[in-house]
Structures are given as C-alpha cells and as structure tokens.
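Our consortium's second objective concerns turning raw sequence data into structural hypotheses that experimental partners can test. To show how far this objective has progressed, the report includes one record in full. It was chosen at random from the queue rather than selected for favorable results. The single chain below, 332 residues long, was entered without modification.
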Amino acid sequence: MTSFASRPLITRLRYLAGAARSHAVGALLMLGLVGTYFQQAENSAFHRLSSAAGEEVVSIEGRQKLSAHLSDSLRSRFEQLSQEEREVVLRLAYVARLAHERDLNFGRFSRPEWLPRFGVRDHLNDPSGKCASYTLILGKLLSSSGYTVRKVGLASSKTSERSQHHVLEVWLPEARRWAVLDTIFAHAFVDGSGHLRSAAEVRADWGGGIKELPAGYDAESFSYACLYYTNWQRLPGFGIIEALFPGADAWLQAHEVALPFVVQLNGYGWIGTLAFGAAVMCIILPWWLRCRASRRLLVTSRHDEKCRHDAEAGIDDPQRARMMVEDGHAKG
C-alpha cells in the first residue's frame, strides 16, 4: 500500500480538494441547521409575544395602560381613530414600552457594540436604543400578527444624509391604506378627519401642515421631506449594480421597494437558506462537471474508434470515401 506522500502530485491535490469540499459541505449544512433553528425559535417567540400583545390590547385595563405610553399628541386624538387603527397604535405602544424597558435593563450593558445582531430577537433581547432596533421589533410583531409592513428611512433636510431615522409603515386591510408609525417616539400622525397618515401624506404636508410632532423631535434631521425606502447604497455589491444599471436606486425608491427590510425580519432564516444553497452547490457542481467530462470522453472515444475502423479499411477521409462511392454509382 503506497503512502500519501509517494502518490503523484495531481492525485494528492485531488484528494485534498475532495476532503476540503467534504468539510465545507458539512460546515455549511451545520450552519444551515443552526440558522433554521434560530429562525424557528425567533418566530415562535414573536408569535407568543403577539398573542400577549393581543390580549392586552382587547382588555380595557390593558388599553388604558398602553395608551399612557403614546406621545401626547397621539394620545389626545386616540379616540378619533377607527377600531383597526386603535389596535395598530396600541401594538405600537406595547413595543415602545417593551423595547424601552429592555433597553434600560439589559441593553448597552450585556452586548458589545461591535457584535452584530443577525435576528430580530437579538434586538428584542438587547435593544440598541436606536430607532432601527425598535422599528425591527415592531415590524416583526406586526408581521407575526398578520400585518404587511415596510420600513421607511428619513434623511436630513440639511445634508441629505440617509440613515438619520427609521419609521415603519403598516398596511391597514380594512381602510386599504398605509399608516406610518414611529416606534422610538411612540407616535403616529393623524389627519383632520381622524385617520392615521401614511408617510407620503406626512411628506406632502411637511412644509407647514404638520403640527403634532412629539417632544424632542428634530424636524430637520428627521425630515419626511427626504424619506426613502431603505438605504440600498449600504448593501454590499450595490455599487456594482448601480454602475451596471444606472438609475436602479431611483427606480427602487419610486416603486417603494424595501426588500432588505424583509431580509432583516428573517435574518437567521436567510443565513440558513444561503448555507443550504451553498452546500447543495458544492455537491451538485462537481457532479455536473464530472458528468460533462464523462460525456466528452465518451464522444471522443467513439470518434477515435470510428477513425480506427476507417484506417483499417484504408480510408483516411470518410467524407471523401463516401463521395468516391457516390461517384462510382453515378458512373455505373
């Protein structure tokens, strides 16, 4: 039995490549299982949280306690809202209270700033105290309750710099319209007829029609006049996409596409999906390359065998031989 060192170099390289691929497939499958497990655990936790919020929303005592956490201007107009709008606003208050309490008790102490938060439950367990963290928690809770949500970013009216503030829009099925919710301020805008405004409606009246801003709100830094749907420029590889397809960001903003928020709402699930996909590619790609090489070898061997038969028959060019035979039949 020959040792590994005595084998040819190409054989050793193939062996090492196969071993590395096997270990990579195993690691990717393990990562996929871990990501899927954490995503399922997160979904289960938020379904329970959604049920707890629903029980508090429907009780009279719970509604009174939750409404106390709303901004002053929203609380003063709470009774004007429809039943559907009240339920959404009370869930906003539930998340604002929960995230604020957890932030005071756990956040900023138990998690280093450099450690990323992959899932929404990471933000729930250790809120960062920032609007994006609060918005993700509210988005996940509303999504677990059956609502359609999307994140809206606000830029500075002075510098046009994005990522200054993040709010959430929720689709109201009965009213068939969007409503904007600001989680960190526990605030929503109400129009003259007593209905929640969408982000576009707030932007249309931002110049002078909006009066009910919450306390401590920086209207210049958190400007609805400069709203956008997710900061695509911060995504890896978007610069290449923008270079290949000029105007891609403008098209995405015009069509109100906030796809990265969907990824953020299911961070661990996407990690698991990508890991499983990469593992499948590591398995299928070598198999496909081997099959392709086998087909080429089969075609080459058949061609070589035909050439050998022609050579034994004294025919160098099969095409020329067929032409000679056809000419002989024509003369005959």
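The partners drew two points from this record. The radius of gyration is 32 Å. The mean pLDDT is 81. Both points have been shared with the crystallography group to help prioritize constructs.
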